[in-house]
Specification:
By secondary structure, the chain is of the alpha+beta class. Helices cover 37% and strands 27% of the residues. Helix 3 runs parallel beside helix 6.
Length: 305
């Protein structure tokens, strides 16, 4: 069973035991903010990319104070004040419990009044402890899987350096390998006064394109990185007319969690752009490995024919 599926099934179990309309699991992203990790709802009104700051609304208050909230009669409040609903729902009961070790908050609601009792609060507290042990186990499994994948990536790139002789083959294979092992939506290489090479998922297919260097717009993120000689990380990046990767007319899909590395070597400079699939976050080890691979790329590219 995949990691996320175990947690999803447990959240569904919690929802059924608590007779909830919606059950949400918020996990701490840092000391001051949580994100909606998993949920189970009988409706279709949930903000799937929801973040709640410490102290914001009832859920944020529970996270800050590390105390449960039992609201047996919720009728007079708009459900959007809970922050995870797109619009109002006829919520009449609400219960939120902090996870142990400041890891987050689990909350349930219902369209029935007085359905959550002190007895059910105790049940949810116990289930929160069990849930945390599942999350910790999943984190250990994910960490091992990430390390295994990054090791395979390093070995594959090493084979590429040894076996590929031409620049054209090297850059194309490099982009495909990086995209596969880091689970990316888009990867782009830009080398000053050379071609721009792009690999992106469009309609579930990998599309490889090559452009002249002049294709890059001076207002693009790629140009900014090269000009300022700085790496750039933008979480939850949303592409628009004023903020784009290389060119205003680009058609890259599902842009989020942008990572751009300034690369230089052998008297040349450029940028490697890496974009995660929608809603996926960068692991620190992935970031460090991606930086290392980008540096290795520029140092070996000009040794090819």
């Amino acid at each position: 069973m995949k990691a996320g599926n175990r947690i999803n099934r447990f959240i569904e179990l919690v929802s059924n035991i608590m007779e909830a309309y919606t059950t949400c699991l918020f996990l701490a992203d840092n000391d001051n903010e949580m994100y909606l990790s998993n949920f189970y709802s009988l409706g279709k009104n949930i903000k799937t990319r929801c973040k709640i700051k410490k102290g914001e609304g009832i859920v944020g208050w529970v996270f800050r104070e590390q105390k449960p909230v039992l609201a047996s009669y919720f009728d007079k409040r708009d459900a959007t004040t809970l922050k995870f609903y797109k619009r109002d729902e006829d919520i009449k009961s609400f219960l939120a419990i902090p996870l142990p070790k400041n890891k987050g908050v689990i909350c349930v609601d219902s369209k029935k009044s007085y359905i959550f009792t002190e007895e059910k609060e105790k049940i949810l507290i116990n289930m929160a402890s069990i849930l945390l042990s599942i999350i910790d186990l999943e984190n250990e499994i994910n960490e091992k899987n990430i390390l295994d994948k990054l090791l395979s990536l390093s070995l594959t790139i090493n084979e590429l350096i040894l076996n590929i002789k031409t620049k054209e083959e090297f850059i194309k294979d490099f982009l495909f390998i990086i995209k596969k092992y880091l689970n990316l939506n888009t990867v782009i290489s830009v080398i000053e006064n050379n071609n721009i090479n792009s690999l992106s998922t469009v309609d579930k297919k990998d599309i490889y394109l090559k452009y002249n260097y002049e294709y890059m717009d001076n207002s693009s993120l790629a140009f900014w990185i090269i000009k300022n000689k700085k790496d750039l990380f933008l979480e939850n990046f949303i592409k628009n007319k004023k903020s784009f990767l290389v060119n205003k007319e680009e058609k890259y899909e599902f842009i989020s969690n942008f990572l751009g590395f300034y690369i230089h070597g052998n008297g040349n400079k450029g940028v490697i752009i890496l974009v995660k699939k929608n809603n996926e976050k960068w692991n620190l080890k992935e970031k460090n490995t991606a930086k290392l691979m980008s540096d290795i790329f520029i140092k070996n590219y000009f040794n090819k024919k």
